[in-house]
Amino acid sequence: MTQQQAVFNQGLISFLQASPTPAHAVENMVRxxxxxxxxxxxxxxxxxLEPGQGYFLVRGGRSLLAFRLGQQPVVEAGVCxxxxxxxxxxxxVKPNPELVxxxxxxxxxxxxxxxxxxxxxxxxxxxxxxVYFRNEAGQLQQALVDLGEPxxxxxxxxxxxxxxxxKSSEVNAQxxxxxVLGAAESAxxxxxxxxxxxxxxxxxxxxxxxxxxxxxxFDLCFYDTQPPAxxxxxxxxxxxxxxxNLLSCYVGLQALLATDQGQAATSLLVCNDHEEVGSAxxxxxxxxxxxxxxxxxxxxxxxxxxxxxxxxxxxxxxxHAVHPNYADKHDENHGPKMxxxxxxxxxxxxxxxxxxxxxxxxxxxxxxxxxxxxxxxxRSDMGCGSTIGPIAATRLGVRxxxxxxxxxxxxxxxxxxxxxxxxYLCQAxxxxxxxxTGQE
Length: 440
Prior knowledge:
The protein has helices at 3-17, 22-35, 74-77, 173-176, 196-207, 243-257, 289-298, 301-309, 356-369, 389-396, 421-435, and strands at 39-40, 54-59, 63-68, 79-85, 90-101, 104-112, 125-134, 140-146, 180-183, 214-224, 229-231, 237-240, 266-272, 312-316, 319-320, 343-345, 374-376, 399-404, 406-408, 415-418. The two termini are 38 Å apart. Helix content is 27%, strand content 26%. One of its GO terms (biological process) is proteolysis. Its EC number is 3.4.11.-. Keywords: Aminopeptidase, Hydrolase, Metal-binding, Metalloprotease, Protease, Zinc. It comes from Marinospirillum alkaliphilum DSM 21637.
């Protein structure tokens, strides 16, 4: 690992640590964009855009779109698009969460996305997310909250009380997942406890300098407080929560920030929330966020269609690396390895949007960047996941290639990726941006 790669990975680790929720990830990306001179845009206002300048928009606080306008018109050069998602599977706090069981205070949770549940047990958990509150003047305000310190745990049941735990152990999300916050003094089991969570949030907000008269609502999730780390004998791996898919958000952002004002084609990054639950929302990939911006950039319908015909979207979402203990879960000719380069993802049933043309184009970007490339096809007797790629292809009619860095333990509370692969993917994306000529 070179010094440049080491600095890149430390930036990734810092981003992962500072982004326990999609809203925090967007806030951190906005900060980097502003430091690089990108200007904010608002969908409800008129836009006056200048070639070479960078701009960004935020929708719902959890989805972000940023672009640098090229020197050539978008209808001639097209748009170099990169897509990722800001959300990860997690445990979200219910609106009225307080539970009292056996004298302990717990919070009820919903399972968000395809969570691998067992790794959530016996972890030091904290809370983070968006909180809406009224100040002393009665005004509704919003703030990001990250308690930072461990405030809860989901204890495992001792094996002495479940001798079959290592053979089969079902997790009931309603009964077994509510985290324990502590003792509920003088409480009776089953009673609705005093809203301890809102008191906790109000106290935290006041310490941060906010005037809080009443906490009105929140969008909170639990997260593991163990920080990301480089692991392995030669620090070959990055171990962290939310690698799927904050790794792709970070990589796409760094590729965009590496562009310069003399770039011919327009380069764009979109990071949507709600991919893990289907993307069907106003801020998800199935919503109008990306399309509405592209239409404003192009002008009338004919110009829009010309632009789309000359554009390409690289949909970035991590891929399944072959697991040495479960190698039979992969097709023997399509098992991506760690630190062996970005993965082109293909599926005959269109769960990925890659075509032979777009696969060839991306392989060319990798060759230009001097990085290796791999291909993944799921076993023919297994189901295949999906990404924002097919959604964007269907909604926009744009060419798409689905790619990603290989990783282990996808959708676990802690995942593992190679220390080389995020860097490799970033180099390939930069080659895409600098080499795109708007070919049809």
